[in-house]
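The freezer alarm interrupted the setup, so I double-checked each line after restarting. Inputs confirmed:
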Amino acid sequence: MTGSSPSDPVVLDRVTKRYGGFTAVDGLSFRVAQGEIYGFLGPNGAGKTTTLRMLLDIVKPSAGSISILGSSSAIDVRRRIGYLPEERGLYRKMKAIDSIAYFAQLRGLSAGAAKRRASELLEEFGLEKFARSKNEALSKGMAQKVQLLATIAHEPELLILDEPFSGLDPINQQTLETLIADQRRNGRTIIFSTHVMQHAERLCDRFLILAHGQKRFDGTLENAREIYGHRLHVRSAAPAAAFESLPGVVAVRLEKAGGEENLYEVELAENADPQAFLQQVVGAGIAISRFEQAGATLHDIFVSLAGDDASEAIAEAAE
Amino acid sequence: MKQVLLIAWREYKQYVFSRGFLIFLVMLPVSLVAFSAAMGLVERNKPTRIFVVYDETGQYTDDIDREVERRQLLQALSAWDAYLNAYADLTAVERGEIAPPFAPDAVNDKRAEAFIAAGGFDVAQLAVDPYLNASAMPFEVPRVQFQRIISPVPTDGSLAQIETALRPFLLDDERIEMPDGTTVPLFAAILIPADFGADDDASAAQYWSRNLTDSALESVVNSALDKALKRQTIAEFGLSQDTLDRIDAVDAPLLSYRPDRIADEAELGLEDRIETAMPAALTYMLVVIIFGVGNLLLTNTIEERSNKIVEILLSSVTAGQLMAGKLIGIAAVGLTMPAMFLFGGLAGSMALTTDQNFLSLAISSLFSSPLLLIYLFYFFCAYAIFAMIFLAIGAVSNSLQDAQSYMGPVMILVFAPMPFMVMVFQNPNGFVASVLTWIPIYTPYAVMMRAAADPPLWEVFGATILMLAFAIFLMRIMGRIFRNAILQSSPPKARDVWRLARKEKH
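Predicted 3D structure, all chains:
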């Protein structure tokens, strides 16, 4: 964790949640800084939703402490928080505008202000025609937008979005990305959990990767790449064994077989220097036609850190 | 508190301003009026039932005719009393301006005779006209129920032959032509054999009719023949016809009094009858409303749970606030219904020009006694008990189907004392009434039912304290189940529900 400050809006310290003999979250600590977008990544059952529910004081932790917007309980500051749960719903018989206004009122706006704000948001997001439609008459995408607008209507300082992209079509995903970016520009702090690595990669300043209730990573993408290790792409007619015998090489994988040359991914030891490796290749008389550092994607890092469950989660998200 | 009221208001608005509720609110009194009007209409328009009598003895036909006529007159007299109760200023009765036999009173032969002697319904109508309200229509004498006609088949054969000849008429294969040209079916045939009588070896009279459900004529004939045979038997002891008539006319006078009133005011009147029946009516309304609103709570908790709205709500309010808001909102829905009917009744009674009709008496009896306050208190008690049960069931169910498995036993528990409530009504300070009063979930109903009978105060207070303690205990247990189960994605198994009740799971 870098650059932490006492005024960080979210601080978790060794938080654990147990259900009987099952530990859903195990000694989790992290901080979210003011104005940043913080991504929660993890396969299904990693403890993301439980952590978010503990943050909101919907579920009490078994151990550890939580500070949210300077308070030990979200109940005291709930008017400054906007929460979009993973499993979302609206009152079927309620009108779209009333739904947004109702939740805004529950979070502290007056009746008049809530109605005005609901109306403005519906117009801003192109839903003004459906303002007086009952929720049951809205398409799934529109209903999800209404839910999102209900989350931000009271202009919270901290937004907690649990899988906000799930179930949205690509156009609405783009709209949501824009909305999240806008919220950040307006100084809001945002925490969101997702399975979709592209969104996280594009939007998040920092990430938390969880697996089996434990923290596997907390930091920026650059930090993650450093941990991920040195990987090089090398194109050569030489066999893989020629590289494997060189000092500092951990593994060599055939990325792409070619007619005359193959593309290899060479993984170096943590303290090995790529330049030294190149000199050894030249010194060994191995001819190469390409040499570059492999750029690890968040996908690679996630799969590497979260294990086999992560691949499954990503496949599900892709579906 | 603001959030609690906001949730309560949403719950209230959702139901009270829904089309279904408004339709129900309009439809219920309309359908009650329509139902009673339809019943009256059916009764008035019931076709006159035609019957024939073959009396081989030649003695009993007149007895049957007299009994038919007598019943007809008593029925008309009952209708007359109902007419006055609905449309007349009953203070005129108290002042003696509507005098016997026209004033509402016991319906018996003596009064019927006096009524006819005083001029019958035409004179009666003129006598009461000044005391009727503006909406009153002239009294309509109910249609004649039964009419004896001359035989449609030859009567010179044996009873068996006559019966065979009548069968096509009784089975509606052949119809009887009336003097006005219409044809009607034969409703019944009464065959009285020559050796009919009271002796053990005498033959029985025969009543033939295809209609087995309408036994009114059968009862009239039975009563007529019964009386005739009794008169014959008494005559055998040497009594004169005049003496027999006097014996027949005997009708024991009986007036009912309340021992809790001073002598002059002790006689039981309509107002007293209403006062006595009112707690039973309110208890019935209490049961209906508690279960009506309980079901609303159940279905909307299931909706919030299955639609996943509950998690958004719980990020804005605590589970306790959510529960309180729901309870208050739905309680208000439950009170809206009787309040609307009460105000409707009040408006109706004020709209009527007389102030002593049945509706006015009912309303004044309700407002002049503590019944309304007792009703409100026990409404909230019963509501607290049952609403929490419904709320907890809603919290552990993802669908109405899930809820059914819990609702079965709850319904049995709830409706188990209903058959005993009749006993409480008839004997409000009896053993059954006492037992039900001390069972906390039945206390509200039992005390309501006994309210007009001055039950022992210690018993009411004791049972009420026990009920309140039970309600608080139940609210805690059910509240825990609600808070622990409401966020579980899959409903807990029935055997795990008590585990949820034992401790806070968060």
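Quick read of the result. The first strand of chain A starts at residue 10 and ends at 19.
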